[in-house]
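A protein record in our archive is deliberately plain, so that people and models can read it alike. The record that follows is passed on verbatim for readers who wish to inspect the format.
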Amino acid sequence: MTTTDLGRFRTRCGQFRWLAVFMVCSVGAVLALMYVIAPFVIGLRGGLPNYGFHILTGLIMGSPSFCYLFGVWSIGRAMSQISRGRLIQPTLADALRRVGLALGVGGLLAVFAVSNILRWIGASTGGYLNFDVASMTLGMIGGALFLLGRVVDQADHIQAELDEMV
């Protein structure tokens, strides 16, 4: 990769970081408005009795989305580090682990935890499992990314050992 290509790549990584920041802020604001602020304001005006319960329900329902947003934030963080000149391999390993963990936890929450917690607090009478193929897929992809992050990290350590032998 030439110096010009590397400079262009780092510039694009910096631009992508700002795209990730925009997405996290805009989607996070919509989620906060939908799950927290709207029930709070309506409850203060007397239109929603027991609005604290509705806020709790909203936070539980939004928890997978918050995990996914953390994954996007982690990607933006990695792009920022690469744009500032950090080595790609350790940044990639860290980003893969963080994004994998965020997607995996978000998928598990969406499939198993949200429906059960809502049933336990009396907000829903649904089943024990939310059969959502998209959430299951994100959970599996998250697990695979987490494992790939470990593989990239191990490859970095093995490369360092080989470099010491030479």
Q: What stands out?
A: Residues 113 and 129 are 8 Å apart (CA to CA).
